[in-house]
Amino acid sequence: MAVEILHSTCPHDCPSTCLLEVEKISDTEIGRIHGAKDNDYTAGVVCAKVARYAERIHHSDRLTTPLRRIGEKGKGIEAFEEITWDEALDEITAKFEEVKAKFGGEAIWPYHFAGTMGWVMRDGLDRFRHTYGTSRQHSTICTTLPDSGWNAGHGIKHGNDPREIAESDLIVVWGGNPVSTQVNVMTHISKAKKDRGAKLVVIDVYETPTVKAADHSYLIRPGTDGALATALMHIMFRDGYADREYMSEFADAPEELEAHVRNKSPQWAAQITGLSVEEIEELGSLYGKVDCAFIRIGYGFARSRNGAVNMHAVTCLPVITGKWLHKGGGCLYGNAGMYPLDWGLVMGLDARDKSIRELDMCRLGPILLGNKGDLKGGPPVKAMLIQNTNPAVVCPDQNSVHAGFRRDDLFLVVHEQFMTETAEFADIVLPATMFLEHDDMYTGGGHVYFSVTKQIIDAPGQCRSNHELMCALAERLGLDHPGFKLTAWEIIEETCRISGLPDAETLWQNHWHDCSLGEDEMHFRNGFGHADKKFRFKPNWAEIGPDFEGMPSLPGYYTNIDLANDKHPFRMVAAPARNYLNSSFTETPTSKKREGRPTIKIHPDDLVALGAKGGDVVQVGNELGEIQVHAVAFEGLQRGVCVVESIWPNKAHIGKQGVNVLISAEQGQPKGGGVFHDTAVWVRAT
């Protein structure tokens, strides 16, 4: 058959959720994938790892048959035997029912995250948990900390329309690396530079590809973003860039904030951030002088114990200066809160019982090891069903996670595309479809489009979609919910209907649906999301989460982080590698070849002080454990800072232990959240 070009949407956990054009070669094969040319956000661009998706979807190591473990946990596919789907489902339901009868439904914990961003395939597991009465999940691993900081000020999760970047005169990328992780942002930045002579400013902790593309870059110490933002506020008030008329109408405590930042000078912030006074003054002048200044906020700097405070501090800047008044001005972290979708059917919210305990996914290790506080007075977790995530690699405190998975009394089911390290611990492994092999629907946190997709090719072997698995288990367990009686497409149709959107077929034929709220609403010109319509310089952290004690009432530098000390003199950041996406793409040949091997980037002067050099194997550790990696002498960061780009499989490391061995499962304030970029370590020559 001739090659067809069909539309779809990228399912991976990047804010872009790119709109795609897929080369269909046959009913079982795809060619290249391209960004949708007619979409004004994607604009024909897609990252290289998705462009070569054929490497992943047609990989010879894909799981295609249900498996039962007959050997030792964690030993690989040789420890499994093939079984039928009926055998697998019968064994799962029998074990779940046994656990429920003996320990109660809370002893079963369905566990998932954003291995797919498709709502039907990602969130149908919640419908299962709610109807079966299992433990609920507090999904903290990604956006909880930045959400907390953003919502504390704005009262709603949306920012500016990212397409307005092209109409900006200054773009500040703060704590993000879009060249590697969200390439579409760079398309719009390039347009602004070409058409308007716009300047790109990047604030980060090390020299990323985005930093290399910047007109001005500022490399700070990890966790000090709040100090830098507060010093910029000082400059805004001091130098006449503050819009007092705007603040009097749209903010809660401008006079109190001005008094608070009066002594938060560039000299004060320089000692904390490691920048020079001159650099901070330069940045303040660059930002203050431009009306159409757009801050594109990344997730990275919020993945710290003080991440919510840092996020809130940065978002104060366009309010102080009134930049929300101007097209091309303002800021954006994510737009998830603007979509008019009713997810009740997908998630089974009508069956949700909020009295059932909610377990923190970042605390997986302590939970599996029986920590009473994490179990919230309930039974131990005796059975799990995992979809869309690979916690044996991506979760913090990896040693505890692995110890928990090795428990003989834990029954573990993993529905996966590959034999991941999590799947190797499973009792039953089930083969899963990929995004081109099922129907789904998507929203984009980094843009404004809702999209509906249909299956493009047949799945290999006996792969079944997440939705098909949920329906099969529900039938055997006698779970009565409409969502289990509908196909994935029928759920999409009904969700569109109850949400007041065009019908699903029309949406599919149109490829995407623009859900922008319009310029005035996206710029909060009618007020912010709080009841009084005012942005909160002085947030009520108690409204955001229960762990608010000690959090500052006004923006600043919150020192609740894992500070460097004599024993652990380095601050480590576990940033994403360009060719991987969490633990996805770590199996594809081109991504593996381009990444090479796990490394630690460390300043050359620090290596000399350690008695090591680039290329040497060094040990990196703290009280949680230690790993060995090859050192890279890297001048693009401050002394005392090191970066381990990941997430590599643990097996790719010397000693088979990866960076998340060193990452604490401690919860960020005030609502939890993974602290992946907030780790003090020692580094030693071997």
List the topology elements:
Elements (H helix, E strand, L loop, with lengths): L3 E6 L9 E8 L2 E7 L12 H4 L2 H4 L9 E3 L10 E3 L2 H19 L4 E5 L6 H14 L3 E3 L5 H11 L15 E5 L3 H4 L1 H14 L2 E6 L4 H4 L3 E4 L5 H14 L5 H7 L3 H8 L4 H8 L3 H12 L4 E5 L9 H14 L9 E3 L11 H4 L10 E3 L3 H5 L3 H4 L7 E5 L3 H4 L3 H8 L5 E6 L11 E4 L8 E4 L5 E5 L12 H12 L10 H11 L5 H7 L2 E2 L4 H4 L18 H4 L25 E4 L15 H7 L3 E4 L1 H7 L6 E6 L2 E9 L7 E3 L35 E7 L1
Parallel strand pairs: 6-14, 7-13, 8-9, 8-11, 9-10, 11-12, 14-15, 15-16, 20-24, 21-23
Antiparallel strand pairs: 1-2, 2-3, 4-5, 4-16, 17-18, 18-19, 20-25, 21-24, 22-23, 22-25
Helix pairs in contact: 3-20, 4-20, 5-14, 9-12, 9-13, 9-14, 12-13
What would you note in describing this structure?
- The structure is a single chain.
- The protein is 31% helix and 17% strand.
- The protein has four domains: 54 residues, N-terminal domain of TfIIb; 198 residues, Rossmann fold (3-Layer(aba) Sandwich); 217 residues, Dimethylsulfoxide Reductase, domain 2 (3-Layer(aba) Sandwich); 116 residues, Barwin-like endoglucanases.
- It has 686 residues and is an alpha/beta fold.
- Strand 11, helix 14 and strand 12 form a beta-alpha-beta unit.
- The protein is built from 26 helices and 25 strands.
- A six-stranded mixed β-sheet has the order 5-4-16-15-14-6, with helices on one face. Strands 20-24-21-23-22-25 form a six-stranded mixed β-barrel.
